[in-house]
């Protein structure tokens, strides 16, 4: 059996640039398969809804999406499908973001355990306030609280104190 080789953050960041969703988790490089059209459609709808909400805010939150590296801890560079950060990112910024988003969103695809379990644990360890995990046909799981221990399954509307004034009709989000 070949010996498993772990890499450090410096080696990871020196890898060739790729549009693949490539993440670093404690020395392991994780490359996700290309998302489905349905995944991208749900992502697009979420980006639009959150961007419209963000436009009316001052200061304006950053709405970001993969592939964009975020350093959640040393040797933990992840790419949430979508995230909300209550800070502006300078247009000239290079390298992984060093600020932890307030909200991360994952749309489940073929690697469901990684998206649903592993990333939730990593996000919780980094201290994010909320995690949304969306099935491609619904529902949406909203994880909150210390260490993201509290979950609720939503199928009609998502609202959160984290995003004052934001409301999303989940039946429209998941409509075919």
How are the SSEs ordered, and which strands pair?
Elements: H1 9-13, E1 22-25, E2 28-31, H2 37-55, E3 62-65, E4 70-73, E5 76-78, E6 82-85, E7 103-107, H3 112-126, E8 130-134, E9 140-144, E10 150-154, E11 157-159, E12 167-169, H4 170-173
Parallel strand pairs: 7-8
Antiparallel strand pairs: 1-2, 1-5, 3-6, 4-5, 6-7, 8-9, 9-10, 11-12
Structure, explained:
This protein has 176 residues and is an alpha+beta fold. It is built from 4 helices and 12 strands. The protein is globular and about 50 Å long. The protein has a single domain, classed as tt1808, chain A, CATH 3.90.1570.10. The strands form 3 sheets. A 6-stranded mixed beta sheet has the order 3-6-7-8-9-10, with helices on both faces. Strands 2-1-5-4 form a 4-stranded antiparallel beta sheet, with helices on one face. It has a two-stranded antiparallel ribbon with strand order 11-12. It has helices at residues 9-13, 37-55, 112-126, 170-173; strands spanning 22-25, 28-31, 62-65, 70-73, 76-78, 82-85, 103-107, 130-134, 140-144, 150-154, 157-159, 167-169.
Class of secondary structure makeup: alpha+beta
Q: What would the principal axes of the Cα set say about the shape? A: globular
Number of strands: 12
Report the helical percentage: 10-25%
Give the second-level CATH assignment, the architecture: Alpha-Beta Complex
Order of adjacent strands in the largest pleated sheet? 3-6-7-8-9-10
Please, what is the average pLDDT?
A: 93
Radius of gyration: 16 Å
């Amino acid at each position: 059996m070949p010996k498993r080789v772990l890499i450090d953050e410096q080696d990871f960041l020196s890898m060739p640039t790729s549009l693949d969703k490539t993440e670093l988790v404690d020395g392991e490089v994780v490359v996700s398969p290309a998302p489905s059209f349905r995944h991208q459609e749900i992502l697009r709808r979420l980006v639009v809804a959150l961007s419209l909400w963000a436009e009316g805010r001052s200061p304006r939150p950053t709405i970001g999406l993969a592939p964009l590296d975020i350093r959640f801890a040393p040797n933990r560079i992840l790419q949430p499908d979508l995230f909300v950060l209550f800070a502006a990112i300078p247009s000239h910024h290079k390298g992984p973001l060093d600020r932890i988003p307030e909200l991360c969103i994952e749309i489940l695809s073929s690697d469901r355990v990684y998206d649903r379990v592993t990333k939730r644990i990593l996000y919780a360890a980094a201290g994010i306030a909320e995690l949304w995990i969306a099935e491609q046909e619904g529902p949406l799981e909203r994880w909150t609280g210390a260490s993201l221990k509290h979950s609720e399954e939503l199928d009609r509307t998502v609202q959160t104190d984290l995003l004052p004034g934001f409301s999303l009709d989940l039946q429209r989000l998941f409509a075919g």
